Amino acid sequence: MTRGDGHAQPTTSRTHSPPPGGGRDRAPRLLWAPQAWIDGRWRDAAVLETGSDGCWRSITTGQPPPADAAVLDGPVLPGLVDAHSHAFQRAFAGLTEQRAAGRDDFWSWRDRMYGVALNVTPAELRRWAARLYSELLLGGYTQVCEFHYLHHDRDGQPYADPLTMCTALADAADDAGIGLTLLPALYERAGFAQPALRDDQRRFAADPARVIALRDGVRALGRPRLRAGVAIHSLRAASAEAIDRLVDAVADDGAPIHVHVAEQTGEVDDCLAATGARPIEWLLRRHRPDARWHLVHATHALPGEIEAVARSGAGVVLCPGTEANLGDGLTDVPHWLSSGTPLSIGSDSHVTRAWPEELRWLEYGQRLQLRQRNVCADPAVAGGSTAQRLFERALHAGAAAAGFAHWGLRAGARADLLVVDAGDSALDELPAGALLDALVFSSPTRPFAGVLVAGRWAVEPAPRGASGGDAARR
After folding, report:
1. What is the mean pLDDT of residues 155-180?
2. How far is it, in rounded angstroms, from Cα 119 to Cα 2?
3. Which secondary-structure segment (H or E) carries 185?
4. β strands within 1-88, DSSP E
5. pLDDT tens sequence across 259-291
6. pTM for this model (two decimals)
7. Catalytic center residues
8. pLDDT beyond 60 at 241
9. 29 exposed, middle or buried (CB, 10 Å; 0-12, 13-18, 19+)?
10. Which residue, 152, 221, 241, 341, has most beta carbons within 10 Å?
11. C-alpha span between 74 and 461 (Å, rounded)
12. In the chain, what are the domains?
């Protein structure tokens, strides 16, 4: 298979299936950890009890290990939500880092990406996504929000089963053992002044009725780790009237609504020309987002727009690895934080696939721009820890972005956790108070020795006393 840019398409040598058994081994009912991240700080000697429903039944601290508990060798953290993913783009990572001539930017990258999108089969999507989702588990994510617009067959015609590509993604999540929030996307035009799709966008076409049908079909699959909301590709890709119809159709639904907005200055200029307003300004004025909404990227946001988004209750999803790779620019992270806006993270095009790296890029971008250190820290919060402030914001905002009212290490939340490999050379012999900062800023090679999703091991930790490097990677 070849891409639209003439390069060979990735083959199975780049799309390995995950090791067998991912997500199928139920953990013991009781777990004990030397430390656990609960309510924004480390607590010692935690006993964590899972219920038959895959949720935490109880969590207590300051307890010796019960006789029938599985004793974990390292501290445990809640898993994070990867709040923005285009799984098929994993096959493209690393293949666009050459410039033959002229200018290379987001728009030229997008044209090459369309060549990949035009050729993906359902079987290939499942393989690529399963590999990706296994990598995301190792990177500390236990739920992923799939912003899904690859709806139709390669000729642009609907599949006989409209859920074909959605099912491929759901199967991939089951293969890996990760939780999945599927967000079928509204996509009807090529730009503000282009009322139809380009030919190389033919697989993306979806009006509000199709988006709702896909959402309902995904929910009808009845899979325990699968949720569904909706997405709007962007203001340039959908008319205001179509967005209004979709929003009206989900008026009584509490599930998340995601939208790309203000990622590129070109998008800002086009929106100004078409509407007389900047993208975030137009979105707030015309569509009145609320707490269900999550604005992806929001790179080029003015201070007044940040404050208005905060007042609306909507969240933002920042994807620092991809935004750096595509040359999007830097958003005003300190202002987003101080405004109180829910702030989650995503891996987007998957040039990075671990939340410690995303949080590191989030801070380092600001350091490079402002020539300061610990820009995202607040001396009045968490002892001034940069990683703690970013992690806590991403923890809670990510849960909302994926459609969860309860998340983390607390009774009633889904039983997800990460076992930190405290024996990693970057983390060994650190005081507990520095562990989260070290996870983000000292670049451990394999930070997590085990990953639990809904009470089942997706990455099984090594037996107690074994080296963290010998963990069974499921």
Report:
1. 98
2. 8
3. strand 179-186
4. 25-26, 30-38, 41-50, 56-60, 70-71, 76-77, 80-85
5. 999 999 999 999 999 999 999 999 999 999 999
6. 0.93
7. 297, 348
8. yes
9. middle
10. 341
11. 10
12. 18-79+408-470 (2.30.40.10)
